Amino acid sequence: MVENTNETSLAIRTVNQIEHLAGTYPGYRRAHAKGDLYEATFSPTGNLSPYTVAAHLTHTEVQTIVRFSNVWPNPSIPDALSIVKGMSVKFHLPTGETTNLIGVTIPIFVTKSPQTFFDILSTMNSFKDGRPQFKDMVKLFAKYPESRAAFQTIRKLENTKSYATGQYYAIHAFYLVNEKGQRTPVKFEWEPEAGVETWSVKELADLSPDYLSTELIERLNRGEVRFRLYVVLGEADDPTDDPTLEWAKERQRIEAGVLRVKTKLSVEEDHFVFDPTILPEGIECSEDKILRIRKDAYAVSYDRRKKGE
């Protein structure tokens, strides 16, 4: 049960605004409504041992649940109309606890302020056909210039041919903490072993509404799908509180491990919550306010989903 306290009121109003813009679909997530769950394993390389004590990133292979999804709140929208795709991973830790890492196919977010995100949602009439319309963008850029880079990235984004050929970014900065208590700012990226592949605009016309799920099942019938997790090490001048800004391309990248997606998971009820702020010893949230409000927003969404609202 989510209580309407001062700490959660903005999250509740934001979820309400998403429902107002996109509609309400009982039993579904308020964002990333359309998606499927898969069983997988994650094997660390050990390369992060100098930076963190988190077991799943240093020395212990763990079981995981992966959810691939479309970004929109409407669960019936065709795959080709949801340009941004998501990949959420739940790691089952040796302690019996879980931790989550969520990623999307764009490297930045539209704002660094939860209040501004609510204001942006309130300003928009709609994003038709899965893309921002020009008149909406002009209004948004004038009022919220920090969102320009993200919306321009979305407009240039091409549909991935497969969930298995998308590159997924965690967007937010985190801190890795080693046994000496030293903290290193990092960002996480999932790189597909099959390479990044996208459709042309002409090719999209021939795709089925659910091509991503169908394609991934066919691909898994031929063998497991692999992603490599990379950690980008931040430096002193890299912002850890602003997800609208990318870090410099020349930052050091360390391969942290391999994710092996194996089979589709059949569940009667999707009770999973991929809250990225649930972290084990060795990983901490950054100062990013958007990251921190996700906890309340996810709780609100789950509470309504559980009730069938």
Structure description:
With 309 residues, the protein is an alpha+beta fold. The protein has one domain (31-285): Beta Barrel (Catalase HpII,  Chain A, domain 1). 25% of the residues lie in helices and 24% in strands. The chain has helices at residues 9-22, 114-123, 134-143, 148-156, 201-204, 211-222, 289-306; strands at residues 35-44, 62-70, 85-92, 98-104, 168-169, 174-177, 183-192, 225-233, 253-264, 283-285. Strands 1, 2, 3, 4, 5, 6, 7, 8, 9 and 10 form a ten-stranded antiparallel beta sheet that branches. The longest helix has 18 residues, at 289-306. The relative contact order is 0.21. Mean pLDDT is 91; it is low at 126-130.
Structural class: alpha+beta
How would you state the average pLDDT, rounded? 91
Say how many strands there are: 10
CATH fold name, please? Catalase HpII,  Chain A, domain 1
Rg of Cα set? 19 Å
Report how far the terminal alpha carbons are from each other.
13 Å
Q: How much of the polypeptide forms β-strand, as a percent range?
A: 15-25%
What's the number of structural domains? 1
Series of H and E elements: HEEEEHHHEEEHHEEEH
According to CATH, the homologous superfamily is Catalase core domain
